[in-house]
Amino acid sequence: MSVPKGRATVAGMEPPAPLVRGVKGVVLTICCAFVIVPFVGVISTSLATQQQVTDSGGFVLIPNQVTVAAYRAIFAGGVVTRAIGVSLFITVAGTAISLTCTAMLAYALSRPHSFGHKPLLMTVLFALLFTPGIIPSYLVVKDFGLLNSYWSLIVPTAVNAFNVIVLRAFFMNLPQALIDSARIDGASEATILRRVVLPLSKAAMAVIGLFYAVSYWNAFFNALLYINDTSKWPLQLVIQTYVVNNAEIGTGQLAPGSVLPPQQSLQMAILVVSIVPILLVYPFLQRHFAKGVLTGAVKG
Amino acid sequence: MTVREDRIIAADRDVLAGRRDDGRRSSRVRRAAVKLRRDRALLLLAIPGLGILLLFQYVPLLGNVIAFENYEPYFGILHSQWTGLSNFALIFNGNPAFLDALKNTLIITMLQVVFVFPVPIVLALLMNSLISERLKRLVQSILYLPHFLSWVVVVAIFQEMLGGSGLMNDWLRSHGHATVNIIGNSGLFKEMIASQVIWKDSGWATILFLAALSQIDAALYEAASVDGAGRWRQMRHITLPGLKPIAILLFILQLGNVLSTGFEQIILQQGPVGINASEVLSTYVYHNGILSGQWGESAAVGLVNGLVGVALVLGANKVAHLFGEQGIYQS
């Protein structure tokens, strides 16, 4: 965060009374508990045995015996395994495409006196103001023949105007002299972008990459609209069917010959699988969040 | 001096100033051409991104003409029958299903504005008063996290906590109390929606308020404290005014979102609650258009919905300007 380091509390303010501090501490602890307890519960239930799940009535907060049967079952093949593969592909391919297009567009818009700068910038800014509407978007995707194709989950959302604006603001703050000297040395625009601008923008690219990756990994709305073929379902649609709507996960949904773990554990294991990738990248990027969000807010 | 001479002198002046009467227009074109040649590599870089925005944001915008057509997929947008405003009739005649969706949308919007919007401000104030930097960062990490979960996961987690076999009812059962039915209770649906939004996004929303808090000049607090202002008066006269611009900005932006918000969140939970209590405008468009094939009418509802959203943003921005605030852009 951009709070100056070492400033214990706002200068000139007396430290609050112990009672006030106590109350604030309790309130914040409760807020954090509201977030942590569900996570712990989901993970614990995914690891619990049939016996304990039955005893507790369905939800386990602290497992007395740990089993990974549920994970073994969902990774052995079957509906969930395939959905994880689909979601991984969409996330990796989508993020790569999004970052490339966004960085190129942001760089092209980062020089205020270039040809057509104003109308191009307005085109991007105007896209922030409205959403095109469900029906027309659906018809465009349909007319391009993208229904039931993985590309329908990538291409329509590949460029986010807000991210373009954030990245553009970041590029404009880079020292212009570096870019000028590269140009004097005869570098083309593409080379300048690749060799000068991008290496200086790793933090911004990482945060925007995370935003894109999370949106692809979490994509539900587009999948619901555009993917009818159940064998092409990404993970979120599988979660909707088997966890939110409680459809029975039978042996038909798992790899042939696997033993059926408790239903509730299976459901929670699917949830954990969809949360873990986010948890893994999150700590590395957290310190850049404020920067990524704020550049856009201030300069937008 | 004759008119002719006058003109010659004017022309001389132009020549001296480096421009020629007849060449003024063409030189602008020439300058643009030079600029275009200089920047063509830059413009090439813009093509893929801009192309995607045009194809999937602007072309669908044009596709809204089907709101004025009796759209048949077989004929396509260009050859469907033009019907003028008849698709909008259900809006003005008050089709009961539409009115239900409108009513639910407005109630959920109200709840969002009144109960959801202030939460991040309070949270940010609490977090800002944490003395230990490390503790503050830890609290931030925890509270930001739900923002990165999908609505599907959030809804699933809420069911696991509050549903029939969830944590709360397990506890009630094991302590001999009656269980409470929250998930699938149509009377509590809208409050449920609001509390899920609070759980998911209010931590993340503190990020901008915390930044605004760190921008407030510490000298103001010093001066106020010298003048004898207590903590509450400092909060009222320094902290809250310092948060006002960003709060207004976020408020206006949220107004634009409210009418279209909640599609994923709501469509996931409509099953057990029933359509009457849970249908909002965006799900109405989805059900009647994509699922039932009433393309024209649904597009009309979607179009009106979108226009009202934009109008709300611009209107609220205007009001902010009238009160001397900055709003989303400066006038």
Low-confidence stretches of chain B: none
Percent of residues in helices of chain B = over 70%
In CATH, what is the class of the largest domain in chain B? Answer: Mainly Alpha
Number of domains of chain B: 2
CATH architectural name of the largest domain in chain B: Orthogonal Bundle
Q: Stretches of chain A where pLDDT falls below 50 for ≥5 residues?
A: 1-8, 296-300
Q: How would you sum up the major sheet of chain A?
A: none
Report mean pLDDT of chain B, rounded to a whole number: 82
Q: What is the helix/strand order of chain B?
A: HHEHEHHHHHHHHHHHHHH
Distance between the termini of chain B: 48 Å
What is the structural class of chain A?
mainly alpha
CATH superfamily heading of the largest domain in chain B: MetI-like
Q: Determine the strand fraction of chain A and express it as a percent band.
A: under 5%
Count helical runs of chain A.
Answer: 14
What's the number of domains of chain A? Answer: 2
Largest sheet of chain B: 2 strands, antiparallel
**β-sheet strand percentage of chain B:** under 5%
What is the helix/strand order of chain A? HHHHHHHHHHHHHH
